[in-house]
Amino acid sequence: MSQPLPIKFSKPPAIPRDSLILITGVNGLIGSHVADQALAAGYRVRGTVRSKERCAWLEPLFASRHADSADRFELVEVPVLAAEGAWDDALLGVAGVVSVATSTGMRVTDVDKEVQESVAEYINLFAAAKAQPGVKAVVFTSSAWAAWIPEPNVATVVNEQSYNDRAVQIAADETLSPQEKGLAPFMTIKARVEKAVWDWVEREKPVYAFNSLLLDTVIGPILDPKNQPASTAGMVRSLYRGENLGLLGMIKPQWFIDARDAGRLYLAALTTGVTGWRVYGCAQRYSWAAILEILKSLYPEKKDFVNLPDAGWDHTDIQSDKHELLLRVAGQAEWTSLEQSVRDTAESFLSRGSS
């Protein structure tokens, strides 16, 4: 797999190179790409996982991708994110924090309970960071679903103040079955948690810069397909195999972002001195039918691809350009295309024999 290109900042970063960056959930698709980009840009990385034993593969992974990672990448264990003092040691000497780790899954049984638990985990980290005078910036991972429900062929306008109130209403409607609610409970958690996090920032006024990234579907090469949970990039693998079609059917046409571009977006939001931004991680529209056609063109010898119905297309108008500005600050002129991202994702799992 190709190495990441070093970021060429268009202006000196507010957090200088060689500073120490804490990345939570570094074993996941997003966290690993943030770490990959940070190491390539000349930062030192301390990545947190719930179990060092289960995630020992991360150190040889980054050693194979970055010659000096033995001195620049450190793996630490934080098994309980909301525990008192959980972050004290992990934050020592840190200049920036990228919060990726989450305990929320897509199958939700108790929205209020999961919101309460998630908020407690995040605030525990952000409050601990507030107590560390060296922390200059924090980036929080939200979701585009915190802002709106994707609906194909419906003209929807969202901006930097949008929250998914409609999902909240659907999730709270006791007349609807779980099937009728669909992913609304999960979207509700994302919206309510992000609101609570921003409320905490407004109330507590930490001295560090604070921004949130609202990522839509993340696709891109899985850095270690043998050991790593594939997350949303694994849906491309599922489509290639003809598996999990029910889940794919629940995820309507919307936007995607390549995992490498997301890594650069995080780094730009963290290191360039901006604050108070809600940044959409949305690069290009996609549908699973469109991805299927790309896979068919890439692998014409495979004759057993499934067929998918045309689910329509996304018509959301995202009235914000902050993600475009940050991409350019990171020295990248344009987003990785859907075609390239699907190609690289497929090659990552096929080359490792995990087809």
Walk me through what this model shows.
The chain is α/β, with parallel strands linked by helices. It has a single domain (20-350), classed as Rossmann fold (3-Layer(aba) Sandwich). Helix content is 38%, strand content 16%. α4 (111-130) links the parallel β4 and β5. The longest helix has 21 residues, at 184-204. The protein is globular.
Beta fraction of the residues? Answer: 15-25%
Structural class: alpha/beta
Instruction: Give the name of the CATH architecture.
Output: 3-Layer(aba) Sandwich
Biggest sheet overview: 7 strands, parallel
Give the tally of structural domains: 1
- Strands of the biggest beta sheet: in what spatial order? 3-2-1-4-5-7-10
Measured between the Cα atoms of the first and last residue, the distance is: 16 Å
Supply the number of helical segments.
13
Range of helix content = 25-40%
Instruction: Tell me the name of the CATH class.
Output: Alpha Beta
**Element order: H for helix, E for strand:** EHEHHEEHEEHHHEEHHEHEEHEHH
Q: What's the assembly state of these chains?
A: single chain
Identify low-pLDDT runs: none
Instruction: Indicate the overall shape.
Output: globular
CATH superfamily: NAD(P)-binding Rossmann-like Domain
Task: Round the mean pLDDT to the nearest integer and report it.
Answer: 95
Count the E strands: 12
Query: What's the gyration radius in Å?
Result: 20 Å
Per CATH, what is the topology? Rossmann fold
GO molecular function, one term: oxidoreductase activity, acting on the CH-OH group of donors, NAD or NADP as acceptor
Domain NAD-dependent epimerase/dehydratase: 21-273
Family: Belongs to the NAD(P)-dependent epimerase/dehydratase family. Dihydroflavonol-4-reductase subfamily.
Keywords: Oxidoreductase
